[in-house]
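In practice, a research group might receive sequence data for several interacting partners and want a quick structural hypothesis before committing to experiments. The following worked case mirrors that situation: the sequences arrive first, and a predicted assembly follows.
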Amino acid sequence: NAGVTQTPKFRVLKTGQSMTLLCAQDMNHEYMYWYRQDPGMGLRLIHYSVGEGTTAKGEVPDGYNVSRLKKQNFLLGLESAAPSQTSVYFCASSPLEEMNTEAFFGQGTRLTVV
Amino acid sequence: AQKVTQAQTEISVVEKEDVTLDCVYETRDTTYYLFWYKQPPSGELVFLIRRNSFDEQNEISGRYSWNFQKSTSSFNFTITASQVVDSAVYFCALSERNNAGNMLTFGGGTRLMVKP
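A structural hypothesis for the assembly, expressed as tokens:
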């Protein structure tokens, strides 16, 4: 009963390096999201996907790219990491059938850019 | 645009006290959904409740209760007889009916510290 799994859980990057965060869900959900959490600002939406092969920008998309090649996976890429991208990243998914149901969140990825 | 405000950034109480966490929201949509999530020190996000805009009934679940008032755009959360295990960051969130993809707008969170 895995739910939403994020890989990796922790990562330290040097400025300018690139990396990809992987989110996998086994609930056959249509919708998937990437949020970042910063102190005092709650969670903010980076990008989201309403289905396989589709992506859209959220509130804070700059510096990130995403892909949804398979329904169960949603990848978040940082092409050239910056210290401002130090944050905790959460992936979430939700089903299409029931409007505005709660999102199911992964455990989070703590990323530090030095 | 939608917005969620949690004015209390930190609250500290002594065990067994009652505590209310405030949430005020803004939306132009007539159909929307409100949520509360808990984030314990371990970091995961735990879903607590969902409420749609047409249901203003208050809800009680054990020591937890929620007061939804459309007239004041508020969705407050009360913990009765708080316990140390209630120590966490609590987030209020909003989703509008017309959102493509049901994405959530979160408040900044309230850190609750319950001391023994």
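Before designing any experiment, note the following. DSSP finds no helices and eleven strands in chain A. The two ends of chain A are 35 Å apart (CA to CA).
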